[in-house]
Each structure stands twice: as C-alpha cells, then as structure tokens.
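S.,

Sequence below, as promised.
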Amino acid sequence: MAILTLTINGEQVSGKDDESLLQIARQHDIHIPTLCHLDGLSDVGACRLCLVEIEGQSKLFPACTTKPQEGMVVHTDTERLKRHRRTIVELLASEGNHQCAVCVVNNHCELQDLAYEVGLQYVRFPYLYPKKELDATHKSFVLDRNRCVLCTRCVRVCHEVEGAHTWDIAGRGIDCTIIADMNQPWGTSPSCTSCGKCVRVCPTGALFEKGQTVAEMEKQRDFLKYIVTARTKREWVAEATEE
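The prediction came back faster than expected:
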C-alpha cells in the first residue's frame, strides 16, 4: 500500500493506492453524487452518476471503481458532468413509474434528492410507463418494481452481508428487473431470511415495509458500515476459551 498525491478540483489531496477516487474525495469533503454506491458494499459502477473527468483522458471514469495514480488531475463538477448527471436522472425518471406524491418514501428518497440536486424541473424524454409487477407476497415487505432503479444494492447486501443471495437480476434493457431466487414470488422464497437488510438499503420506494403510508418510511442505511466494521474486527465473534 502506497500513499499517492493527486489533485481534485484544484485541491491537492492524498490517498492510498488501494482506495477509489470516490473514497479519497469524500475523505476530503469533496461531494460526488452517487446512487448505487453504499459504504459497506462492493462497488459496481452501475448508476454512472459518480463519473469524473481526468485530465489527459477523453472519456469519463466512475469514481467508485477508479483507482488513483500519482499526479492524477481530477474534476468532479464540470459543466459536462452536470449535463451528464442531469440526463441520467431524467432517464431514470422516464423509464420507471416514479409518482412521488403517493410514495411511502416521499421526501426520504435518494432519487428524489438527486433530482433536486441536478435541478430537474421537467423530463425531456417520453415516459415509457412499463408494466412491472408489484410483489406483496412476503409477510413483512413489499417489492414495487415500478420504483426500482436497478442499483443492485439489494442484490449485493443479500449476497455479501446476509449471505442468502435471494435477489438477482433477470432480463435485458427495459425488461431488466429484480427477481427473488428463480423468479418466484418473494413470499415463497426458501432462501430469504426476512432480515430486512435489502429494504433498508434500497434508495427508493421499490422495497418497503408493509403498513407504511405516504411519506412515512425513512430508511436507515448507516447500519451497514457498522456490521461490516464489526465483522472485520471480529467484534461479534466469541473467543474460544480454554478448558
């Protein structure tokens, strides 16, 4: 592990060579918007909202999966990036059925927050209004695929933290969707432990608890980093005692 020096938005910063540009930026209070990233989970670069410009490179790079290099010059808030992020949020809004006024996480939604951040007032693209199924077969939770943004947080937390791997992705393009096990009703899943981790990490109202009403559900996502840290430090593992 080596310490590198690079420049982000004109500010000289340092970071470890095994960290991502996103991690280094956040350590220095430099904001980069994200949707699929969540501390404690692996990064997949799915949402593309964290793309940054690197001097000397024509293409954009996802900050969550790009490692730093000595002397690298990075820009995170250029006009090009602002246009790009606004377009992504517009496309997410147009290809789903996001009716904020009747959503259980209204005012507690990360997609909604991003829309405010990029200044989204209208969508330039035609709405697709896909017909996606709502799965309320689980005793405690509901999956509303109409509000899913395919960030795969639920897939990763179920696999990497809970170890159940109930969730996966099926289909392609506009037909891409989250499924439980072999595409069966969530309530019949033999692998689901009903832990609720997937519900808590979901950035939108795609996964929510039964009984919640409009704007009532505020998700707590900070729990994940405490679980991962405790497991890494083996704080929850009972030490064997000698007889």
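Helices lie at 21-27, 79-95, 110-117, 153-162, 197-201, 223-232.

Coffee later?
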